[in-house]
Amino acid sequence: MKRESRVVSCVGVNHRTAPVEEREKVAFSAEDLPAALTRLDGELGGAVILSTCNRTELYATTDGDVSHAERLLIALTACKGTQLDPRLTYFLTHDEAVRHLFRVAAGVDSMVLGESQILGQVRDAMSAGTQAGSLNSVLSRLFHCALRVGKRARSQTKISRYSVSVSSAAVALARKTVGALDGKTVLVMSAGSTGKLTARSLADCGAARILVANRTPKRAAALADSIGGRAVPFSGLQRALAASDVVISGTGAEGFVLGPELVAPAAAGRNGSALVLIDIAVPRDIDPAVREIPGVRLFDIDDVEAVSRASMRGRRREVLRVEAHVEDEVEDFVTWWRSLDVVPAIAALRERAEDLRRRETERALRRLPDLSDEERERIDAMTRAIVKKMLDRPIARLKNGGDAGAYMEALQDLFEVRRSPSGRRR
Questions:
Q1: Consecutive 10-residue runs of the chain (426 residues): their mean pLDDT?
Q2: N or C, where is the chain less crowded by C-beta within 10 Å?
Q3: 3-class DSSP assignment, residue 250
Q4: Within 13 Å and on the Cβ side, how many CA atoms surround 196?
Q5: Is residue 66 within 8 Å of 11, Cβ to Cβ?
């Protein structure tokens, strides 16, 4: 029996399948999403894009055929006017796609295991889909369930005790590279959520001096004031670079923010001390060409992953508990998804039974003209009760049975219930 309900499918690229220079080709900013989602909704009949520094994933509803992998990938890359090698991507469908998103929301599929930002990013993806009108009923249910999984993982396991962010991992990389930060000057290029997390982590680690640069001076000043740092204007970046030991950048701007023309003069005359640049933005903020400048050490977000593995052991103990919650929620979602076929079948069965009951009752009552209104109502109520009790078990099997498809085939054969594509019984 061919299932009418469409299944969840996902095409994506992440830190495990592709390097940052490929991931940034399909990185979507908040400003990019409305137009992209509107376009994808028109092509696919529903879409959600989850785009973070670690991944870009398109969730849609298809009939589950693997041939849709190419269609989804082409639709996604067309929104950015680019192309990706299919070998760097993955295509998941039905319960695999559901399980994948739930693991992402729970923090066990991230570059930094248990990271704290991903749940908010999943929520933002759902909100963007809602605002663009691209969130169909299946995707809406999927993302609401994903948020519940993420909250459950953090409230019912200790995964959040070990949770870190990419920002804090970048600070750990800085400490590993230059040593203690209590005598160092660090420039943070971002005053958004990434910049805030980075600055606070630096302050907690005792960085001697924290500079904050942002294209919006007020935001830079507000963040600097909150951690006892100093805001610097973008026009003064070269001077700030020259004064810094470490630069952590995470603006996510389109195009490079730092290139050789700014970094080379800042690196000159440092008396042998290296200028450490850590780029955690996707798309990247810092031109890879600066690696060729003497005295400069550049790390990108893929380098951060190696640092995050150091504290993996304690978190691994909680992963199995999180995975158990994920499997519970996957089962619940799949059960709900199956009900999308079952509900119309149940409605058709009830409609069929009611038609028969009403016709036969009316025929019998016409032969009993002397009955009072009260007696007629009692007979009508009795026949309703009989039909309800007869249908209770078949309906329960349809709702809770392990093979709803087989039960619906039997229902069609035994009760002559058919559903047309429009949903009407025939």
A1: 65 94 94 96 95 94 81 96 95 95 93 83 97 95 96 87 77 92 94 90 93 92 95 91 94 89 90 90 94 95 75 70 93 85 76 88 91 91 91 76 62 60 36
A2: C
A3: coil
A4: 7
A5: no
DSSP state of 416: -
CA 115/CA 333 separation, integer angstroms = 24
The residue type found at 210 is I
Helix (H) or strand (E) run with residue 31 in it: none
Q: Which two tokens stand for residue 100?
A: 């994948």
The reported pLDDT for the residue numbered 231 is: 95
Judged by DSSP in three states, 277 sits in strand
| Catalytically annotated residues | 53
Query: Which residue's structure tokens are 């994948």?
Result: 100
Question: Could you give the angle at the alpha carbon of 416 between the alpha carbons of 411 and 419, nearest 5°?
Answer: 80
CA distance 248 to 300: 10
How many residues in the chain?
Answer: 426
Q: Which domains does the chain have, with CATH numbers?
A: 7-163 (3.30.460.30), 166-310 (3.40.50.720), 342-415 (no CATH)
